[in-house]
């Protein structure tokens, strides 16, 4: 039997590399999937690439309660109650020291990366089946400090608190809640951070990041997706309230 047979999943940030790759694995494992993102063009492209009748999309700004309630209700209308919520949407902000960081960018990062996660849990949890799973995307930046990424680091620490609180509150329903903490992933977000750190020298910045990882490379989206599938499946029934690190040894140093 497939790991997610007949389960209903919502994936926010569904048009990004991790969201899209996870959706592909979810579908292969038998799930019905609703992808959520703010960019309808990318969502349509993602649906075309996935080419599966068990996936749909909803355009939403995860930082707005009315949009979050709408995507949750759409998943229920399409597929019934929710079994898996991959609360994944996030943005990187800019690369600047705290003293130079634009307040409006800080506010936007917190709105998407923290309020968006909080709202997602708030509206999805009441619609979830007993024994379900919430997986929240944090980062190694949610476990350590990183210079010049103050808003992002702050947001990724904050979601650990949301996760732990939700895990306790959801335990009577046997709903598991965990965060995942990837090292740098080989995707658009890291290209943005690399270029933001040193315009025109992104490759050099990548090499510096890689040198800080014992396995000496970035993660690939498929590696993150495999961890999410495990946490979403019944194979992780006794795992809740945890910070699942997938970082090539970066935090071990």
UniProtKB/TrEMBL annotation:
Record carries keyword Protease: no
Enzyme class: oxidoreductase
Alphabetically ordered keywords of this record: Oxidoreductase
Gene Ontology terms, MF aspect: oxidoreductase activity
InterPro entries membership: NAD(P)-bd_dom_sf, Sc_DH/Rdtase_CS, SDR_fam
CDD domains registered for this protein in UniProt: SDR_c
Top-level taxon: Bacteria
EC number in record: 1.1.1.-
Protein family: Belongs to the short-chain dehydrogenases/reductases (SDR) family.
Record protein name field: SDR family NAD(P)-dependent oxidoreductase
Annotated organism of origin: Parasediminibacterium paludis
């Amino acid at each position: 039997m497939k790991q997610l047979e007949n389960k209903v999943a919502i994936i926010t940030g569904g048009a990004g590399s991790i969201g899209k790759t996870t959706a592909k694995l979810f579908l292969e494992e038998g799930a019905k999937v609703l992808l959520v993102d703010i960019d309808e063009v990318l969502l349509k492209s993602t649906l075309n690439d996935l080419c599966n009748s068990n996936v749909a999309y909803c355009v939403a700004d995860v930082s707005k309660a009315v949009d979050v309630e709408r995507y949750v209700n759409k998943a229920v209308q399409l597929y019934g109650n929710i079994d898996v919520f991959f609360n994944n949407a996030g943005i990187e902000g800019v690369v600047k020291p705290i003293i130079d960081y634009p307040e409006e960018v800080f506010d936007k990062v917190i709105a998407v990366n923290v309020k968006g996660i909080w709202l997602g849990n708030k509206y999805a949890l009441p619609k979830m089946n007993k024994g379900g799973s919430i997986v929240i995307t944090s980062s190694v930046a949610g476990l350590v400090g990183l210079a010049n990424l103050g808003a992002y680091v702050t947001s990724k620490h904050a979601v650990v608190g949301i996760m732990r609180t939700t895990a306790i509150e959801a335990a009577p329903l046997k709903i598991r809640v965990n965060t995942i903490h990837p090292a740098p992933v080989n995707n658009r977000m890291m290209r943005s951070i690399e270029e933001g750190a040193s315009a025109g020298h992104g490759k050099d910045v990548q090499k510096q990041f890689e040198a800080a990882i014992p396995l000496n490379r970035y993660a690939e989206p498929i590696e993150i997706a495999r961890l999410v599938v495990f946490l979403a499946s019944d194979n992780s029934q006794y795992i809740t309230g945890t910070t699942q690190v997938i970082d090539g040894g970066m935090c071990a140093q």
